[in-house]
Amino acid sequence: MSSAVLALRGLGRTYKTGEGKLEVLRGVDLEVHAGEVVGLIGPSGSGKSSLLHAAGLLERPTAGQVIIEGQDCSKLSDKARTRLRLGLVGFVYQFHHLLPEFSALDNVALPQMIAGASRPAARGRAEALLTQLGLGARLEHQPGQLSGGEQQRVAIARALANQPCIVLADEPTGNLDPHTSGAVFQALFDLARATGVALLIATHNMELARFMDRVFALEDGRLSERRGRF
């Protein structure tokens, strides 16, 4: 298998609370490879979001390493982490977080322009991604004019806009009905397979496990691989 696009080595995360320290990640090791779809399951409060935030350089872990495309990010400055995150990591959340005053097209073009792309190039790629996701007729619609499933497809296109090596998804279909959830996840899966991007997806929906190459459970701060049927 090719070298990992994301590697977590001995990842630890501890939070200070009024009652002391809360250890949510304990020596987590994980590798995700190009084109691979990896699921992350566990009950609410088990640390799935903390793991994704550390992996995506949104938070600094208390211990361990986050390695993206072979680069150890542990000691990078905040500015360097932001630059790396913008170019190499995409995010999809349970709630789409689209900019309400912008069209679908501009919501996907904006991250590219922030990264340095010209407006015509950014809008061209945005149109191509949205069309692939079945939204070719909805390019100029604002989020409020789109259904929940359509909004989440725009969020997927935005996550892929800067051609990241990995997309981190935190309950990406958790706010959708089962039928829409399946369709949106299939769209994410198909586009990831077509582009070769790696996916790390936290979810409660075990129906989605059939799409995934590997599934890991996070329990008591530790990660273990789950095999077989779900």
Automatic annotation (TrEMBL):
- Gene3D superfamilies of this UniProt entry? P-loop containing nucleotide triphosphate hydrolases
Q: Which InterPro entries has this protein been placed in?
A: AAA+_ATPase, ABC_transporter-like_ATP-bd, ABC_transporter-like_CS, ABC_transpr_LolD-like, MacB-like_ATP-bd, P-loop_NTPase
Q: What Gene Ontology cellular component terms go with this record? A: membrane protein complex; plasma membrane
One short Pfam name that applies is ABC_tran
Q: What are the GO BP annotations of this UniProt entry?
A: lipoprotein localization to outer membrane; protein localization to outer membrane
List, alphabetically, the PROSITE patterns matched: ABC_TRANSPORTER_1, ABC_TRANSPORTER_2
Q: Which residues form the ABC transporter domain?
A: 6-230
- An example Gene Ontology molecular-function term: transmembrane transporter activity
Q: Does the record carry Membrane as a key word?
A: yes
List the keywords (alphabetical): ATP-binding, Cell inner membrane, Cell membrane, Membrane, Nucleotide-binding, Transport
Per the record, the domain of life is Bacteria
Q: Which residues cross the membrane?
A: none
The UniProt entry, under SUPFAM superfamilies, shows: P-loop containing nucleoside triphosphate hydrolases (SSF52540)
Query: Which residues belong to the signal peptide in this entry?
Result: none
Family that this chain belongs to: Belongs to the ABC transporter superfamily. Macrolide exporter (TC 3.A.1.122) family.
| Protein's name in the database | ABC transporter ATP-binding protein
Species in which this protein is naturally found: Phenylobacterium montanum
